[in-house]
Amino acid sequence: MTPMIRSRLSAAPPRTAPLAVTTVLLALLGMFGPFSIDTPFPAFQSMGEDFEVSDASMQLVVSAYLGAFALMSLFHGPLSDAIGRKP
Predict the structure, then answer these.
(1) Taking a C-beta distance cutoff of 8 angstroms, is the pair 37, 62 a contact?
(2) Is 24 helix (H, G, I), strand (E, B) or coil?
(3) Which of these, 11, 37, 49, 56, is most buried using a 10 Å CB contact count?
(4) Contacts of residue 37, Cβ cutoff 8 Å, sequence gap at least 6
(5) pLDDT in tens, 64-79
(6) Could you give the CA distance from residue 48 to residue 60 in angstroms, rounded to a whole number?
(7) With the CA atoms of 22, 25, 26 and 31 taken in that order, what torsion angle do they form, in degrees rounded to the nearest 10?
(8) 1 or 66: which carries more pLDDT confidence?
(9) Which residues, at least 6 apart from 77, have a Cβ–Cβ distance to it below 8 Å?
(10) Are 66 and 37 in contact (CB under 8 A)?
């Protein structure tokens, strides 16, 4: 690559996605959180019967998931800051 081409490439502004595309993408990504917790709900009845546990015990699955999610957020945040993408 010649110096002139290199200087033109570095001076070009970075390409960004249109606002509508970014908004739709963020909306779709935002649905994954609720989807991951709501997915097992329809199966609670049959899972409780298969494991021979009460409904209250099956509802502890949600509490365990949310507790683990909250606890791991305390570790994943600082870890991603420490070894994440560098400028």
Answers:
(1) yes
(2) helix
(3) 37
(4) 62, 65, 66
(5) 988 998 999 899 888 8
(6) 11
(7) 170
(8) 66
(9) none
(10) yes
Please report, in angstroms and rounded to a whole number, the separation of the first and last CA atoms in the chain.
23
d(CA 76, CA 2): 43
> What is the C-alpha separation between 68 and 78, in angstroms, rounded?
16
Average pLDDT over residues 39-47: 89
Average pLDDT of the residues in 6-29: 77
- Cα dist from 82 to 47, 59, 70, 73, 74, whole Å: 40, 36, 19, 14, 13
pLDDT at residue 23, rounded to an integer: 92
Confidence of residue 14 (pLDDT cuts 50, 70, 90): low
48 class by beta-carbon count within 10 Å (0-12 exposed, 13-18 middle, 19+ buried): middle
